[in-house]
Amino acid sequence: MTRAPYRREQLLPLYAPKSVAVVGASPRSGSFGGRTIENLAGYDGAVYPVNEKYDEIGGHRCYPSLAALPQVPDLAVLTTPAGSVEASLEDCIAAGVPAVMVYASGFSEVATEEGQAAQARMAKRAVQAGVRLLGPNCVGLLNYTSGARITFAGTPKGRLSSGPAIGLICQSGALGFALAQAMDRGVGFSHVVSCGNSSDVDVADWVSALAEEPSCTAIACAFEGVSDPLKFLAAARVAWQADKPLIVYKMAVGEEGATAAMSHTASLAGSAVLWEALFEKGGAVAVHDFDALIETAWFFAKAPAPKGEGVAMLSGSGGAAIMSADFAEIVGIPMPQPIPEVVARLKELIPPFVPARNPCDVTAGVINDMDTLLSCADALLGDPQYGALIYGYAYAYETATVRQPYLSALAARHRKPIIYVWLTQLIEGPGRAEAERDPNVAVISSMRRVFEVLKAWTERSARRAASASVASGPSGKQAVVAMLAGETGRALGEKASKSILSAYGIAVPREILVTNAQEAAGAADGIGTVLAMKIDSPDILHKSDAGGVALNVEGPRAAGEAFDRMLSACRAAHPQARINGVLVQEMIPPGLEIIAGFRNADGFGPVLTVGLGGVLTELLADTISAIAPVSTCEAEAMLRRLRGARLFDGFRGMPAVDLRAAAEAVAALSRIAMDFPDRLAEFDVNPLICLPDRCVAVDGLVVLKTAVEDTAKVP
After folding, report:
1. Residues 205-229: pLDDT tens digits?
2. Could you tell me if 516 and 448 lie in one domain?
3. Residue 268 within a domain
4. Do both 127 and 210 map to the same domain?
5. Residue 668 pLDDT more than 90?
6. Fewest CB atoms less than 10 Å from the CB: which of 326, 501, 575, 640?
7. Any idea what the Cα angle at residue 536 is, between residues 534 and 542, rounded to 5°?
8. Short-list 158, 162, 226, 224, CA closest to 192
9. What is the CATH number of the domain that holds 566?
10. Domains in the chain: how many in total?
11. pLDDT greater than 90 at residue 14
12. What are the tens digits of pLDDT across the range 463-519?
């Protein structure tokens, strides 16, 4: 990391100031300074307009300078044009102001040398002086606990008194304030903060600060990017340690960053994959639609810890019930049938022609009978299998709103959330605001999203309940240091690459390096089994393409002939390549082939990738990535998340394989990555053959750091 993220105490003067100076304040309607004064109406603290031209603005005494104020303000908001900002910042530093916000644009966002240089000077000066700087090019922030709406933009009005609340972080101030308009339909916000150009305070700093903010019960974050992904990871860990749910929507996830990779596994880890891995490492919940961010965060802000993994669905619509079963299966959320006691209770309540099952379509007759409806909901909520109840909200009308407090009371008594899946297209219809404001009920406007949110909720809870695992196991660091001494080329040959694997306890085939046909024949005779033969060269990265691989070689004579044939083909394909010789190795029996490796990605550090298919991995596109390090348990969880994970347990006559051995190999790769971040740029093990009793790395490719120093950066 470039630096640790700021914590709450360091940012309090910025987002929870007890006094605000508006530098450049103006009575002119529509001016940035004038609008800021207007938005501070109702703010609990002191407001000090600063402008030598006026005596009073908006009912507040106006002061000629910061030095003339009766106290040092916690925050100075610079509403002046870009050309005067640096001088105003110096005035703030001289006055001892601890936090400064800058509205003006015309800095790094315009991509001119002058603008970038000015912003760099401001940021450096603020850091030197210990001043927290927000912006430039910043829309401002909203604090709904104190009424400090510190912005020139129009914003939702209101105050947070108590109860659940979202702390919203948005790199784009316009999008952040757009999301904050959910307040008008009943969503609670403690704070809405933006970053502007992030010259000092950025997204990661806000995550860290709000993680420690008592009035915020969940964090929603929408951003394009940060200069230091590992700082964002550190901030996410602050939120995890505080048990503050962090919901993220990442924009700008192009894949062009993977094009510089030399190895197969590295080419699979593009920008989107890297960010997904970082969110997973930090315990953040990622959503992939902008309109899912607030609904998901508001659910997490309200919901208690799940009391069961299963979900029950109650509806008066058969179609809604069928849809819920579909998406439960697609997303992977269990909808078990009720226990016998609950079945018996439901049969007492619903018509005899209606099955007492889950999902529970009780028909319109029961929906319109409040007592019976509530009894059905009570019965399902009382089933210990279910952690939540989904209620199909088909129509928005006043009579449906009457049920709201009774359903809320049931949810509170059982300590299980009721989720209204808002099926009506009368989006803001009767009952919506009441449900949004209710602390025991959530509203989600998509059946698929309901189950995606519930899956994230139960998985987060299970992860918190699990004991933290530590990456540990054999380390051959000292031996590998000696191996790498003096290596300055682009890559290592297969033998050297597999020597590193062996030093860390990863099984490799028996093999002998030979330099002529006679030695090849002797090695074949000594190994005495079906052979694989491969060219060993640090300059031929993909051996098969150059004719440098021969499989199922049997006997000394065939080995000698294969040696001559391979050497001739490789020298023709790569005349300048350094060739160490040919590896004669035992042929490992057929098994389940996976690919495993890591890439040192700029800004993210070592990123592990595993996938099914060996040489077919890129075609199958079944891979999982994780930020290193990972323990054996974490590696096993990665492998279990693959779409084809059932293959590990045996499939259609194939034997089950030693999944633990595969996980241990992936964890060992993780330790290699962490031990040599400055020397190894990429490490490709392809394939790693999984057998019933072991897991063997039959090929390996190491790309050294010097070979990729000048390649494009990952976004």
Report:
1. 999 999 999 999 999 999 988 889 9
2. no
3. no
4. yes
5. yes
6. 575
7. 75
8. 158
9. 3.30.1490.20
10. 4
11. yes
12. 998 866 666 777 789 999 999 998 888 899 999 999 999 999 999 999 999 999 999
Distances in whole angstroms, Cα of residue 636 to Cα of each of 469, 515, 530, 629, 645 = 12, 40, 31, 13, 10
Query: What range defines the domain where residue 222 resides?
Result: 8-244
Assigned domain for 312 exists: yes
Q: How far apart are CA 265 and CA 659, in angstroms?
A: 20
Whether 700 and 626 share a structural domain: yes
Query: Omega of the bond prior to 687 within 30 degrees of 0, cis?
Result: yes
Based on the fold, state whether residues 602 and 575 are members of the same structural domain: no
Look at residue 255 in the predicted model and tell me its pLDDT. Answer: 56
Q: What are phi and psi of 361, to 5 degrees?
A: -90, 100
CATH number of the domain that 191 lies in? 3.40.50.720
Residues of 39-78 as b/e, b for ≥16 C-beta within 10 angstroms?
A: bbeebebbbbbbbeeeeebbeeebbeebeebeeebbbbbb
Spatial contact of 183 and 155, defined as CB atoms under 8 Å apart: no
Look up the pTM and report it.
Answer: 0.91
Same domain, 445 and 571: no
Q: Residue 615 pLDDT > 70, yes or no? A: no
- Per-residue model confidence as pLDDT tens digits over 568-613: 999 999 999 999 999 999 999 999 999 999 999 888 999 999 999 8
* pLDDT of 258 over the 70 cut: no
- State the residue for tokens 């891979």: 623
Q: Are residues 427 and 526 in the same domain?
A: no
- Average pLDDT of the segment spanning 79-98: 96
Q: Omega into 136 within 30° of 0, i.e. cis? A: yes
| CATH number, domain containing residue 388 | 3.40.50.261
Q: Which amino acid is at 28?
A: R
> Is residue 148 included in any domain, yes or no?
yes
- On whether both 396 and 449 belong to a single domain, the answer is yes
